[in-house]
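The records we work with from here on pair a chain with its fold. These numbers are not coordinates but entries in a learned vocabulary of local backbone shapes. To see the layout at work, look at the sequence and tokens printed below:
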Amino acid sequence: MRFTQCYAACGVCSPSRASILTGRTPYRNGVWRWIPGGHATHLRESEITLPELLKKHGYTTCHVGKWHLNGHFNSDKQPQPDDHGYDHWMATQNNASPNHKNPKNFVLNGEPMGQLEGFSAPLVASEGVRWLKEERDKDKPFLLSVWTHEPHLPIESAEAFMEPYASIDDEGIRQHHGNITQLDHAFGIVMKGLDDLGLRENTIVFFTSDNGPEGKRRTGRTQGSTGGLRGRKRDSHEGGIRVAGMVRWPGHIAPGTVSHVPVIGSDIFTTVLGIVGIELPTDRTIDGADMRPAFRGELIERQVPLFWRTHIAPVKSRAAMRVGDWKIVADETLTEFQLYEIEKDWQEEQDLAEAMPEKLAAMKQQFMDVWKGIEAEGPRDWWENEPTRASPSATIGRGKDETGDWPMVRGGTVTKSEMGYRLTSSGEAFALRPLPNPLTGAERAAFKLDYRSAVSATTRNAFFCFGDGPNHAALIKVGTAIGKGTHEIFQGGWANAGTGAVKKVEMNASQAFHAHITIDLSKRTVVLAIGDTRLEQRLPDNLTKVTHIGLYTKGTSSDFSPIDVVE
């Protein structure tokens, strides 16, 4: 059965995978974001996983491929696959390294494997089949999780799998399409393995993905298609969350059938437990529903609506909820909403929010009720008050001030310039001064400054910054990534650039920009206005006062005017 409305539980990878294993929406199970190496977020041992429950009921279990459910991989600092119920595992923390060809970062049951010969997806699938044949206890039923890296970057495809696309001139497209064929070949290895072992008739197989396609499909190897759906990976519009979905269950699902019933990754947990007769945990909310009615062409009853929240989605589509044919999309602050009748308007072209205020109000109320329940259960301290990405440059060394105007300089040098000041750095740098009257309580202030790049290199950027002291990881950056052609607001290190409020605009790399920044502690927002561009971002909840303002650059030299306090 092919599902035309199959959803990932999130617009990015780690949260979707955690939901498959727990049946719980990401912010509820704690894996609220994609997980960089060394990050604190992980799938907690307090979560009850599918392999854990199956193992307790006599199953033998195996995981092969991408893991990406902890920041401290193959370490005693955080739970590993075996801590979540897997008897046997061959995995990487995140992506295959250096790419899909001859990867060297796989770990087998805690032991690094060194460089492997071959391509990631076939290697992963082959290990899964080898386990089925040689390692598993044949007297027990089994769970096998095969999580391939393809077609995630960094893409590298075998020549044999690119051969069908030899007539395409663009090497990036050949690599991407070959990568899909490489994945297809790996899936075939698993399916043939089941057939060869006589397991076909008594095995249910799920095939799905963790998010929509990467990139902007302009150049290079990120060429995945959404089929016309709005948005791509990260987005809470359909292109970021609607994914491939297939299920094979001989004797229970008619071959070659198609279902238009909405299903989501977290449903796998509930469905499998229902099939094998294991009761759902009763001490926590399980968001996933039993999808077996859909196998019979019937609708699915849900206790919790389909819900998404993606930490690095576009600002206007950070969260969404679907109930029946209706979908509501929320902005970053959960104050602005869009409304779509998704069955009729699957491309989300007609926002009905203004035309249907009563329907919008009812959906908003239900959305907020669901979110409040999720927020109450999840480890909210993990996502509140933290930069969107852990940045290795969150701590930077001392800098130098040659002007006498900046008492706190880190990572670079401040000198005088024609505009006022020049901040030069090889890495990340900021210069801060205390506000004469710190912002506290429900106060508001506005600032003006001009800035421009002082170099002709590709790397050009200039930002105003502010916060409660010189903690780089907590400082809010507001300004322009000139080299990328974007105005942005983000928190923390440069690794977070592009993850907050962003707008792409046409700009001259040598021009001066006139920025107006408003910090409003009562509304909990910061607003950047440059010409016709206006960006707004919610302030972290732990930012209760603003004591310092200043300048920020990354790997460049930029000129700034003095900062004027205008309000």
The domain at 11-230+244-259+268-278 is CATH 3.40.720.10 (Alkaline Phosphatase, subunit A). Residues 102 and 116 are 5 Å apart (CA to CA). The chain is about 20% helix and 30% strand.
